[in-house]
Amino acid sequence: MNQENEANRNPFVNGALKLYVLLAYLFVFAPILASFVFSFNSDRFPSIPLGDFSTEWYRAVAADPLVWEGLRNTLLVGVVVGVISTALGFGAAYTDYRYHFMGKQVYLALALLPPTIPVVIMGLAMLAFLSRVNLSGDALAVIIAHVVICAPFAMAVIRLRLSQMDPSLEPAAWNLGASEWAAMRHVVIPFCRPAILGALFVTMAVSFDEFAIAWFVSGLNETLPVKVLGFLQGQVSPRINAIGTFVFVTTMTLLILAQLLLGRPDATEKE
Amino acid sequence: MTQDPTQDPLVTFDGVAKRFGSYTAVQKMDLQIHQGEFLAIMGSSGCGKTTTLRMLAGLEAPSEGVIRLSGKPINDLPSWSRDTPMVWQSLALFPFLSVIENVEFALKMRGMGRAERRARAEQWLDRMGIAEFADRNISQLSGGQRQRVALARSLVVEPQILLLDEPLSALDAALKVRMQSVLKTLQRETGITFVYVTHSQSEAFSMADRVVIMSRGKIEQIGTPQEIYRAPRTSFVADFLGSSNIFPGQLTRDGQGQPIIATPSGDFALPAGNTLGIAGQSASLTVLDTRMQIHLQPPGDARNSVAARMIGEEFVGATATIYFETEDGREIRVQKAHEDLADLSLAIGKPFHLSWSPADGHLVSE
């Protein structure tokens, strides 16, 4: 918003709009905020007025070996999925940038398709397929399933960055004596670095959060979100708030990191 | 010109053609580029000039023919194995590298050690007068400074030949003129062969030793700027340069058997010794707009003349360009100094007679 607009605006309308935005955000974030507040509340059931400040639910969660196992699975899966999906996404995006071939539209549609498939169907299909090849119930199964839904996100992020690259940049590197591999290493990847890191964080966050497919294929190697459902089915405990807060903070941190990398002034600049 | 006619050319195009699917970008082309010359390739967009340059740089493979560099065929040599650095229209500087890292790039790719390549890059930054910006980001530089970085980045490998693809097109007029003299001086001092692609006549004619004019994938004319300006070989060239009036017609002979050209605007005597071909052939007579005279009465001597009505005028600095239209609807331009126009009392719509000496005419093929 520039100065001129600011000066011409009715201060009342301006204030009302700001209030409206604030309320909209409050509505969206209220449940998460409530979960955050109650995770530090000593009462057994969420009620107002609040009881004492307490970290006992966090301590209870931390004392549960099953939670640690879930966290370990989630982190392991998240990191591996992030790296593999970003590598695949980069390859797909670069192919789109560099080459023209028959059926490219089909190639693109297929590459971007997985996130549009309802997760329940995807999870069921994955379970059917992976159990057939004896991978179901393995952490590897969760990794494979998550790579399928994460790679398109990585591709989209990196493709956007490549579209900002001067088409002469890579030929200029060849012209200066760089082989195709050297140009990839010294020009294309450095140019895409913010997007590659961004894609890494986004895909990790998606995997970290993903519940439905993991529920189908994880078997005994449950990830944290699957574990949360287990708690819910057994009992109502503020421990869920504690885990929920932890998952939310982790995911948001990854997404904010990605946003900072992708929104940096030099990331959008086109030379 | 520094070229020695006994020397073998640095680059030869031998029947080189380039097709993209059914579209022919460059038709069978023969071209020699001499050691140490400044060659400009000029034409409007889509004429094949950039494709020609890209084939030389190894960015496009010829569909036909052989390109030789210092006598060796280079058709199958990938771009990174040729020493044909190019300055790009967009400059294509690496935005994630500092100025000096950009200049070092080619040396790094050739495996030169860190200390040595830094020293070489610093030399070139110094030579281009941008040593103080070595550690800056590309985005912190002005247009002219970026231009110098791009030149340093290409010249740091000290090549035999430098290719330039409309490098000045993004600059404002004043900076353009300054960079032209930088380029010309640089070429003279280094003795490196420059091949400069442009659509701008003023750039080509002010810098180049020889100019190649292309149209629709074909070379229309090769020559020094003076040769091309005085004696365009085809009516396309004359029209493209825009400094001549063109009368298309048929070659024939008058009552006394003298060769003339019959045009819709009248019959005109031809310059001696410039009878292009046989009678009956189509040709065009071109006359430079500075060589025409304006009269109130028909000149009545041995001069060629045509009646025309004034339709407009344009003043640029000390000269004026007056536009006329002949009875058959042909537009004619005449350039004159202001003092030559004083007693003509010019007015739009007023009839005049335009004349030129037959020796100032120049015959071109269609």
Automatic annotation (TrEMBL), chain A:
Is Transferase included in the keywords of this UniProt record?
Answer: no
**Record domain ABC transmembrane type-1: where:** 71-258
Which example biological process does GO assign this protein? transmembrane transport
Major place of residence: membrane
Topology class, membrane: Multi-pass membrane protein
This protein's superkingdom? Answer: Bacteria
Pfam families in UniProt: BPD_transp_1 (PF00528)
Subcellular location(s): the record lists: Cell membrane
Q: Has keyword Transmembrane helix?
A: yes
Instruction: Report the Gene3D superfamilies cross-referenced here.
Output: MetI-like (1.10.3720.10)
Q: Name one GO cellular component term.
A: plasma membrane
Query: InterPro entries annotated for this entry?
Result: Bact_Polyamine_Transport (IPR051789), MetI-like (IPR000515), MetI-like_sf (IPR035906)
State which residue ranges cross the membrane. Answer: 20-40, 75-94, 106-127, 139-158, 195-220, 240-262
Q: Which UniProt keywords apply?
A: Cell membrane, Membrane, Transmembrane, Transmembrane helix, Transport
Which family does the record assign?
Answer: Belongs to the binding-protein-dependent transport system permease family. CysTW subfamily.
Q: Write the protein's name.
A: Inner membrane ABC transporter permease protein YdcV
Question: What organism is listed for this UniProt entry?
Answer: Paracoccus haematequi
What lineage does the source organism belong to?
Bacteria, Pseudomonadati, Pseudomonadota, Alphaproteobacteria, Rhodobacterales
**Which gene holds the coding sequence for this protein?**
ydcV_5
UniProtKB/TrEMBL annotation, chain B:
The cross-references to PROSITE patterns, in alphabetical order and at most eight, read:
ABC_TRANSPORTER_1 (PS00211), ABC_TRANSPORTER_2 (PS50893)
EC number(s) given by UniProt: 3.6.3.31
Q: Which residues form the ABC transporter domain?
A: 11-241
Keyword set for this entry?
ATP-binding, Hydrolase, Nucleotide-binding, Transport
What SMART domains has UniProt attached to this entry?
AAA (SM00382)
State if Transport is listed as a keyword: yes
Q: Which PANTHER family match?
A: SPERMIDINE/PUTRESCINE IMPORT ATP-BINDING PROTEIN POTA (PTHR42781), SPERMIDINE_PUTRESCINE IMPORT ATP-BINDING PROTEIN POTA (PTHR42781:SF4)
Would you identify the family this protein belongs to, as annotated?
Answer: Belongs to the ABC transporter superfamily.
Q: What is this protein called?
A: Spermidine/putrescine import ATP-binding protein PotA
Q: Which organism is it from?
A: Paracoccus haematequi
